[in-house]
Design goal:
The chain is mainly alpha-helical and about 240 residues long. The chain is about 75% helix and about 0% strand.
């Protein structure tokens, strides 16, 4: 499993594309937080709310770009058959690719700790609410983990990396914001809107981001991850 994980890491960082993707992610976040209108200096107090509102939408583009070649490229080049000859089970291959892609995402998120240090240094009062900030980072981790599972699953449907990117982008966007949008329909205003919104990822991400780690949110994220990895396993079994 770890050999597959290391292979995914090497494959991503062996080309300039991987470095460009991470650089763009950090650059966009930095410009929005510190340069563009309504940046953190305009709030008048220490907060990273802007970053945690923006990051999910940038991850919607970053993670499909990281994972789009995961299985699609293997199918296209015929190397998946070679991969099957190794002493690895189907689940070990899937989990290895999943953790390899997730590690790349975490490497992209790691430099954002600079934002915490910078705001703490610039703050003239108590600084950031560290409980809420840590909770938001935990929520962002689970969000990235779910997006990675969805994108890995999308890549297992096709041998075209571009198609895998588009499918995973749409899938992540629908599961992240789609149910929240549906819950605002007037027909669901009698109380059903709350339960419809609970199906979506955004509801649970916002819940954890408040700084309170609820086991229901954790179980939700783990269940969605397992569901999409199980679908991936089913797709590979058909091949």
């Amino acid at each position: 499993m770890w050999s597959v994980c290391k292979k995914e890491l090497r494959q991503f960082f062996s080309s300039l594309t991987g470095y460009i993707a991470i650089t763009v992610f950090l650059l966009v976040n930095g410009l929005v937080l510190f340069v563009f209108d309504e940046n953190i200096f305009d709030f008048g107090y220490a907060t990273l709310d802007r970053f945690f509102q923006l990051a999910p939408w940038i991850l919607l583009l970053l993670i499909p770009a990281i994972t789009m070649r995961s299985f699609a490229e293997e199918f296209k080049t015929g190397t998946y058959e070679i991969l099957q000859t190794r002493p690895l089970s189907r689940w070990q291959i899937i989990v290895g690719k999943y953790f390899g892609s997730l590690l790349v995402v975490l490497i992209a998120l790691l430099p954002t700790i600079i934002y915490i240090v910078s705001i703490q240094r610039l703050s003239s009062n108590e600084g950031l609410d560290m409980g809420a900030t840590i909770g938001s980072y935990i929520g962002l981790f689970f969000l990235a983990a779910v997006f990675t599972a969805i994108s890995i699953c999308s890549s297992s449907f096709t041998n075209n990396a571009v198609v895998a990117f588009i499918v995973s982008l749409i899938g992540c966007a629908l599961l992240y914001y789609g149910f929240s949008a549906i819950s605002r329909l007037p027909a669901l205003a009698n109380g059903a809107d709350y339960y419809v919104e609970m199906i979506g990822i955004d509801f649970h991400y916002r819940s954890i981001s408040r700084g309170l780690i609820d086991t229901r949110d954790v179980v939700y994220f783990l269940s969605v991850i397992f569901l999409f990895l199980a679908i991936t396993s089913r797709n590979l079994l058909k091949r």
